[in-house]
Amino acid sequence: MSAMMFIIKFLIVTICLIQICVHSTLNDEIFNSVISTNQLPFEMPSFDQVLNSNKFVLAHYFKPFPLSIDNKNPSQDYYSVNYLQPSGEGNKFIKQGGFLRVRPLPIFAPQNASNIYWKLTNMEKEVRMAIARGINGWSYDILSVKDIGNGTCFYKGTLCELSIMLQAVKNVDSQSRFKVVLMPDMSSSLSLSDIVTIVKYLYNDTAIYRNGSKPVIAPFYAEGVSPIQWQSLLQNLTSDGFPILLLPTFLTISSKYINVEMYANISIGMGVWATVGVPTQGSSSIAYASTVRNAKSNNSLLFWLGMMPQTYKPKDCILYDSYNSLAYRNAWMSTLQTNADIVHVATWNDFSESGQLQPITDLQNTTGNGFYDLTAYYAHWWRTGLQPTIIRDVVYYFYRKEATNAYAPNMGCNFTMGISQSVSNQIEVLTFTTDQSILTIIIENSNYTFMINSSGINSFFIPLQAGKPNIQLWRNGINIITVEGNHEIFATNVGLPNGVLDLTYWSGSTASFITPSKSVNTFTSSNRNVGSSIVAISKCSTHVNMFIPLFFVFIAILLIF
Q1: pTM more than 0.70
Q2: Among 51, 109, 249, 298, which residue has the fewest nearby CB atoms (within 10 Å)?
Q3: In sequence order, what DSSP letters do the residues of 118-180 get, joined into one string?
Q4: Its Gene Ontology molecular function terms (predicted)?
């Protein structure tokens, strides 16, 4: 064997091992950075404390948008090739500029093609991400009876994501404290007989949300089925030995549209699935709470409070303006004012309506994790009834890449407002401070200064304008925080480079700052003051150590052949 040939083979083996290390490190580093709690403004409860709570913050899980649809590298997966491209899916949404504007953070080390458990692995990641911000359950949108599977759930291509999710929950927490609320989607083709099949199949699963010993179903668009039909379903299941409880969620709660009293008589609670992400959703929730609590004379109904961080439907060219983070913060304050029994955030991952909590990115490596991080603080506030003490100075920002009237020559539709409201083309900086401070926002040639007179939460708005905002927090002449917005704002007369409109509120913070690189294939992340680089290096070393024995086997093979 020639020396040159040996060197070539040696280099090939070495490069392969390096790729294994780098891909594993990138994948782990991104998600460990995302779920880190070291830079949140308060002392985040432990996983056990979140899971032991009997006050549930649920996030709506929508199965069409998992972390990965097809287990491919991010530059080649279905999100990048179809959903985010204006020409994707055979130009199906070309007039709208594409089906989606956002996607989940990419999986950089897809499971080996022979590994049938890649969906399970990814769902476990999502459960951990949720718990890390105070979410202790899903409401799982059931679109089909096939969601429960037929015993072959972990194989690619089967339609049994609900059963996979239930297993993922139990893998993350063997005590099954993270609960899954069964939410039959009555706007789909799902029938009442399908619900019977699903309930019987999953009845004894320990991950199912229960009230007492009985499973609870919380149908979406419950008004699509009459109270008499729901009552018949409950009676039939009880007769068959599968008693359940009903907690209907409606698109609205009003005697104008539904018979509130009849639904109340057969239910343990009621609520609106979610109020669209506009600043008035807090006051709407207060009105809904009053209706629910007055539906029975003894006020015994549980009140389910639904909310959305923002609502923008690019596929429909419809916008409900949340005014940056204002709508979400107002909704959370209403959980305290109404003493809500269950909080429901819609959604965890419905990217088609832009209301997702999950950290997001896009083809330009824009990132958004502000709503995700903000959830941790308000969830703990509602859960304990006490405002968490701010122990770290943290800055959040929320803004669009362009104004709502930006130049978009490649759009074939004009967006319309979902309700009558003015739009907010502004940059918001939301501060959590431990003491008096001075906030400075610099963008291009504009400089804005605000006095913060005491510790607490403060929101500041400046006009949306081209450039990247540089945000600084000062105290006693010392610069405490400097952070630059992670996405550029394009001038109104220029618009986005791809010529389409993106009205998503992108966001970030010093709490979990995700830094995009030049390509989605080399996406990196960092968490300020956490020492993620050291963690990454040590992890890479661990991976290399794991492959040292394998490396020597390769060398032996090379010497033989």
Answers
A1: yes
A2: 298
A3: HHHHHHHHHHHHHHTTT--EEEEEE--GGGG-SS-TTSTT-S-HHHHHHHHHHHH-TT--SEE
A4: glucan endo-1,3-alpha-glucosidase activity
